[in-house]
Automatic annotation (TrEMBL):
Protein name in UniProt: LL-diaminopimelate aminotransferase
Role according to the record: Involved in the synthesis of meso-diaminopimelate (m-DAP or DL-DAP), required for both lysine and peptidoglycan biosynthesis. Catalyzes the direct conversion of tetrahydrodipicolinate to LL-diaminopimelate.
Cofactor(s) for this UniProt protein: pyridoxal 5'-phosphate
Residue ranges of coiled coil: none
Annotated EC: 2.6.1.83
Residues the record lists as binding substrate: 15, 42, 109, 132, 187, 292, 388
GO molecular function: L,L-diaminopimelate aminotransferase activity; pyridoxal phosphate binding
Subunit structure, as described in the record: Homodimer.
Family per record: Belongs to the class-I pyridoxal-phosphate-dependent aminotransferase family. LL-diaminopimelate aminotransferase subfamily.
Annotated PANTHER family: AMINOTRANSFERASE (PTHR43144)
Source lineage: Bacteria, Pseudomonadati, Bacteroidota, Bacteroidia, Bacteroidales
Annotated catalysed reactions: (2S,6S)-2,6-diaminopimelate + 2-oxoglutarate = (S)-2,3,4,5-tetrahydrodipicolinate + L-glutamate + H2O + H(+)
Any single biological process term in GO: lysine biosynthetic process via diaminopimelate, diaminopimelate-aminotransferase pathway
Amino acid sequence: MAFVNDNFLNIPETYLFSEIARKVNTYKEENPSANIIRLGIGDVTRPLAPAVIKALHAAVDEMGDANTFRGYGPEQGYAFLRETIVAKDYTARGIDIAPDEVFVSDGAKSDTGNFGDILGPNNVIAVTDPVYPVYVDTNAMAGRAGKPTADGKWEKIVYLPCTKENNFIPELPETRPDVIYLCYPNNPTGTTLKKNELKQWVDYARANDVLILFDAAYEAFISEPDVPHSIYEIEGAREVAVEFRSFSKTAGFTGLRCGYTVVPKTVLVNSAEHGRVPLNRLWNRRQTTKFNGTAYIVQRAAEAIYSAEGQQQIKETIATYMNNAGIIRKGVEAKGLSAFGGVNAPYIWLKTPDGISSWQFFDRLLNEMNVVGTPGVGFGPHGEGYFRLTAFGSPAQTEEAMQRIANWKL
Ligand code: MLT
């Protein structure tokens, strides 16, 4: 009989958001009449923009006509989308990225998770703590994390704590890792790095020959001018950084699935046998072998986001979510709790009252107020004592949730 990849037996049996869904479903079965408001997983609730729907319909019609039907597309994405991405997300910001450095995919979760395929098994990985669990779990699956430790960490992972004490700005690592994951605006804390702060990381990576995997899935929510939308706004980032982008939160594509990854040809990493090699070539090889591209109709839908009407429509939706974020933050603060984020990101990160752990807060909020959030400790040990609420609910549900929290006897 075959052997399993034992690394899978080291990771928690369920993924964080699956575990939360399981708990909520159990509660719902036991309390069928409960009116539960879900501000847990960062899943959008507003429908797709009309410009996107129009593009989808048109693309579906093309697929039904022998003259315009498309079969397999380029694994890296159609040129029409890659060129639009480059023009609107990079050239328009004065950033030098070429279409063959852009790889369209079914989302940033897959890409951040899959990227480890092209990295060696002995790389030392650094993550901020708390952190989006995909980075840690996928490295654990690949054996790069070692074994779990009693304090909720992994023996080989370098953790960079982000707490209110350091204003959620991680310090540069004391020992040099090979790879650093950064996500800004940050999931889960909703906080940001300003341009001069991100520059320190790029400078560090260049000086120490470190690869930065930069997740910019939430860049569309930035409202402050000194917060970079792309790591390539920082000089030298083209040498050391890969950037992940997603249309999930930007344009409500969580169910449609589309994102992209930028791998500049100038990012060179070490090979034991071949010296310095470009990651772009390896990612291209990985994608062409394991991925057959994102659906044509979805890529046309993504292209439509960049039209003038598409831009206006998605901006309205983002404004609605950020209005929710303001309501949540105000409500949390009115309750006497410290709240962070919610200004350049759709997440509010709150400090639970002394003596109430993340999971206790989760259970009580669900049981007593029928509101779902995400326990901070699910994102890493330094998330203990924190809790995340998302701004992706409807305005009415968000108001209602905050009303319930206002009445809550904590
Ligand atoms: C979250 O809630 O952190 C996100 O929805 C997760 C994701 O984008 O996969």
